User: What shape does this take?
Amino acid sequence: MEGTAFSIDEASFDASLLPEGSRTPGTEEFHRAVTDYFQKSYAGMGGQLSVVFAAGRIEVAWEPAAAEAPAMASIGPLLQQRRFDEARPLLETLLQLQPEHPEALYNLGVLASEEGRLEEARLLLR
Amino acid sequence: MPAHALLPAVNRLLKQVEEAGGLPVMAVQRGDLEELATVQLATQEDQTHRILYRDAGEASSYHVAFEAALLLRIVQVPAEQRVILHETRQAREKVVSSVERMFKGQISLAQARNAGVQYYDELLLRLRSTGPGFVADRWLVEQAPELRGFQAALLQSHVHDNLFCLEAEVERLTPTAVLQATRAIHAACAFHAAELLGISPLAIPYQAAGLEALAKELIAITRAEPSTADPDREIVDSWAEKLGLTRWYVWKTP
Assistant: This one.
């Protein structure tokens, strides 16, 4: 699921979702219970949640956890052992996540060159 | 750039529609189309149903498949009983007057009229297409599982795009009757997608906004066993009742 952001009126929040005693919009108890509701609702999704109360509205934003880039430290040994088929997808993933990653560009360029794809190598190494 | 070939699943679905309706069905790519895909029904003069679609890469297969699912529902209604949803002048003028009142002195009467007509048309389109669309979605899951990835992407993107309707600015700019019905329909879309895709957080914003019960009632209507030869009309009429829109349209023969 991609990230999401929305806002609703405190007054239109479905109070039946909150524990009794925390259903009055604008109160601290209400804000705490609403925050708790959203935290529980998105708990299974990981990522980062933000719940902000401003001018009578509840602003909610949820972002999925950033995809983790494979570390160059784990790719280096594969390249040294000439395990290119295993290294290539990791380099490509790294490049998708960090398009200007210099080592990924360099190593993919070298791989392309070794495999005779000279035009691709030229583009990657320029 | 050449258009992507439609996936084999699409031809399979088109064949099913042909068999059910007894007329040929063609998928025709059209670069000038405003929507992603639409159905052009056969006429007396031209005895072929057409699904027109805009090239959207591989996703075009899903767009055509979805229209095929809707077309299948249309051709299954006996020809003499087929009806089309039409606007009513009275309802449209009511929306226009609301907009005029809301923005008196801020925008011209012509602008208010344009906005009012647009609000009315959009809501009517949603009312006509959303409920039957749910049935089509569920049918496609069974009939063309290979298109599920496209379906998931499209449903999620609709839910995402619809979230603006909860914003305060939209509340300020939209006549209440239109806003409430639109939010309820969007809530139904979110719960429908959450259920179909197994991603319950898609519905959280609408649950928080107190729209869960109504959304689920609307979805239940699309699951009910039809009692007439025109299930789509039944769905639209039942939704209209729930949403307070019964006087907003009439059914007419084509």
